[in-house]
Amino acid sequence: MRGFLMWFMPAKMKQAAEAESRQWIGVCNHCGSENSIWDIGGIRYGAAGRPTKLVRCPKCRKPGAHTFEKRG
Ligand SMILES: [Zn+2]
């Protein structure tokens, strides 16, 4: 999905989307590591709120709910 979206974006918008996606941080409730939406292969740009997503933690490899908050 991200690759499909990025295909249509100009380079500057890709950089902005990556930078913003890296500011959305969710905490793994198995190992406590902090993963950005970008780290888990997602993209979030021009959005607000606190989305909860079911993702596989890249650190401990366990699936679980991450609630993402924008930092920075
Ligand atoms: Zn984890």
Explain what the structure shows.
The protein is α+β, with helices and mostly antiparallel strands and 72 residues long. The protein has one domain. Helix content is 26%, strand content 28%. A four-stranded antiparallel β-sheet has the order 2-1-4-3. It is globular. The mean pLDDT is 93. The site of zinc ion has 8 residues, from loops.
Give me some keywords for this one.
72 residues, four-stranded antiparallel beta sheet, 4 strands, 26% helix, globular, binds zinc ion
- Cofactors, ions, other ligands: zinc ion
Low-confidence stretches: none
How would you classify the helix and strand content by structural class?
Answer: alpha+beta
Distance between the termini: 25 Å
For the largest beta-sheet, the strand count, sense and barrel status come to: 4 strands, antiparallel
Anisotropy-based shape: globular
Rg from Cα: 12 Å
What percentage of the residues does DSSP assign to strands (E)? 25-35%
Number of domains: 1
The side-by-side strand order for the widest beta sheet comes to 2-1-4-3
The pLDDT mean sits at 93
For the secondary structure, the number of strands is 4
Helix-strand string: HHEEEE
Task: Tell me roughly what share of residues is in helical segments.
Answer: 25-40%
Report the total helices.
2
Provide a brief overview of the structure.
By secondary structure, the chain is an alpha+beta fold. It is built from 2 helices and 4 strands, in the order ααββββ.
